Amino acid sequence: MNSSLLTIRWRLFWSSAAALALAVGCFSLAQWAYAPSTDQCLWSVEDINSSNHPAKPQPRVIIRAITPKGAADVASLMDGDELIAIHDLKIPDFSDQLTYEENWRQVNRTIEKMTAFINSTPDGTTVLYTVSRDGQRISRPLELKKEFDTTNAVFLLTGIVAWTIGLLVVLSSPQRKVTRHFFYLGILTLILVAGASTRGNYTVPLGLELITNLCWLLVRILLPPMWFHFFLRFPYGFEIKKYRPLLIGMYAASALVMLPEIMITVGLAISGLKNVDWILRILLDALPVSVNKSNFASGSLQLLLLGSGVVLFWVGAFKIPGRRRKALLAPLLFSMAIIIDLVIYLWFAGTLKGADWIFFQRSSKYLFFPLPLLPLTFAYAILRHGLFDIRRVIVRWLSYFVALGALVIAYLGAIAFLFVVAMPTQIPMAWLGVIMGLLALPLSGLFQWLLVTLRRRFKKDIKTAHDLILGNLRETKNRFSDDALLNSLVISIHTAFKPQLFLCLPVKSNRVELPSAVKGHTEDSQTLSGEEQRFIKLPQTMLRHAKDNRELVFGLGSDESDWIQAQSMALRRYLDSIGAQILVMLMNGDYPHSVLLLGGKYAELNYNREDRELLREIAIATGALLETADMHRSLIDKTRMDQELHAAQQIQESLITSEPPNITGFQIASRLVPATETGGDLLWVKLRAPGRWIAVVGDVSGKGLAAAIYMSQSMALLKFASLDAEYPLEKILAEMDMVLRVLMSARDFLTLSIIEWNENGQYKVVRAGHPPPILLTREKPNMAIPLMPTGKALGMLPVSSPNWQVIEGNLQPGDWITMYSDGITEAMDDQGNLFGMDRLTAQLERFWGTGSTRAACESIFQQVAAFETQNRDDRTLFILAREK
């Protein structure tokens, strides 16, 4: 059962039972058991000049407003007859010894006695009326009648309709305060029926009169402020509804102004029980204000609250969206019509007198006939435009009552058939009673079976829901996208369970961020503010359980989730206000991906064990699909990255010199092997001018794609800077340094070695932070000479003055110059030893004697590859040899 409905279920039951018992009981007692008899005419006290005292008008009782075909009309009484006596009760004659006012009061007291006598006389009793007509006394027998109180019957019908609609509304959304308000207004309408049932009836016993008077006072105290309070929430939630002191003061003021009437009612009850009137006098003397002033204050406050509620209704209707405003058009217009109707009634009741007043009293019931349509217009708006979700509640409960009614009818039919068959055969009554009892035994089991059958009809069969949800999840088009998968899951669960609330929220850092407002719950849902209140912090125990089981289905009711209350009372109230019942955690591998918050489901309002097992299976299947989608996405990303890297590798290979040019009188061997698909090393050989060449070996800090991008930018700069054949090498480095400081990040830099030579063997070497080139010459055959011109790397911060030195020399026949990157000398084996300069120069010297630069290049790369087991870097080697 919904946790909110579980909290208020007994309140709904007992308040409904008490209100229905009071309304139906008081109406039935007042209508049939204690209904007053009437002669169906009006007695009017009028001043008539007598022949004995022509100068002094005398009060006389004149019969007026005879109901056509009523008791007085049947008895041949006529309008204008002077009433003389009813049985032994006589109208007193005018006394000269009394004042006019005393004579008037004496006549009125007699009329009160006659009224009490007629009202207390049983229906159908004949009484003797003595009247004076045209100076003659005439006696007529009159049969008293009990009239059906149509006005109270209309009130009762209105109360039952309002209570029924309120009950359906609160059952549809028990977590919403506005629905409970709507229900309590229906309860007060029923209590109003009880309070109004005996008003003006002087034949009811004192106990019943006290009960109805208390009901009347209770309605006058609670109905106006509750009416105003309801329209603070519906159809638009005004901010003033959150100001509790004002609301409490409103209810307190309504009770305070009614205090004198409460005291009078209690005093009258005590006085009637004890048959004394001094208690009532003491209470009247203790009142701080007069009764008239109290009645005026209470009436003014009640009219103010009722009128303000209608104004709020109109203002709120124009603050909501157009579709809902159209839905409220019928109750808006009809409520105004009812108010106008009541104003007309109050105006006539206060202004008409005499025969006109009694005629109005008899016809006033027609003014109240439209009253039951007011709650029906609200029901129309609710059902037609879905202001509250009560269709399913109506279908469910009506089906239950129809099943119960059909079962009772079948039972009574069986009993009737048994009597028809049994009576002619003279079966003893004792045996008939036994048979009737035995027939009643299976009723409870049969009714329970009917309820279970109906519940299965109204809820989706568990296998159907299973096939529906998992079938949608396994759709190929939904399996490789998180969004498509979750959307499919949302649609499937909506179709299977039709939950009142469905939120799919991501999990970030083991927390779930809640929305500040939920669609359909904005009128009365709690608001969340503050960093701590806007998140559900998932406990570690729940996360471990979800990791171990690949799912988590957890109830969010107050009896299942103490950790929510421990986290924040505001969070507890918020979850209760939106009706969240179930938390379903979806896992992606070992990590929570998202959670589903579900409200009450279709026609059930709660989730049973089978539903939770299905949700667990759904969570496991969804988690597996999320993991598959993640792997698929990673595979696609890797494939895309491979394609991009391959494209970058092709671009990079097109930029570097992969095949050295053939130069007469020189041998060139070069090779560049990146550590990954792309690298940051640079190798470039180009004819700069006729008979003059340039070779560059460089290394960008870092590895991978970023280093390759910087390398490409550096190649473009180098090519552009070397277009002018006479531009000095040190100036080329200065220009590149200035641009690279802008292009590169603060931690990146570029090292370069450049050699420029001509066909005569004359060369220039410049270096920018790169490992120094190695010279092998026959002048010093046993020594590898490092060429070490000074110069810092390019693009480095902070900026310093440029200082790139140029070394010049002459390459003799048989001499070698080698440029390389640190990926060769810093290659590392599994013991942490570096390949180093010694191994490199040893390999160079070994092949220098043979004169084969290509063999030397291939051998060095093989040696480095065999040596290196870790810390792999881009490797570049360039060997320039002058032929002998």
Which terms would index this structure?
16% strand, alpha+beta, 54% helix, 884 residues, 5-stranded antiparallel beta sheet
Q: State the shape.
A: elongated
Rg calc: 51 Å
User: Count of helices?
Assistant: 28
Intertermini distance: 100 Å
Strand content: 15-25%
Question: What is the typical, i.e. mean, pLDDT?
Answer: 80
Largest sheet, in brief, is:
6 strands, antiparallel
Order of strands, main sheet, comes to 11-10-9-14-13-12
Helicity level: 40-55%
Report the count of strand segments.
24
3D architecture notes:
By secondary structure, the protein is of the alpha+beta class. The chain has 28 helices and 24 strands. Helix 4 (150-172) packs antiparallel against helix 5 (177-196) and helix 12 runs antiparallel to helix 15 (373-385). The chain is elongated, with a radius of gyration of 51 Å. It starts with a helix and ends with a strand. The model is unreliable at 274-281 (pLDDT under 50).
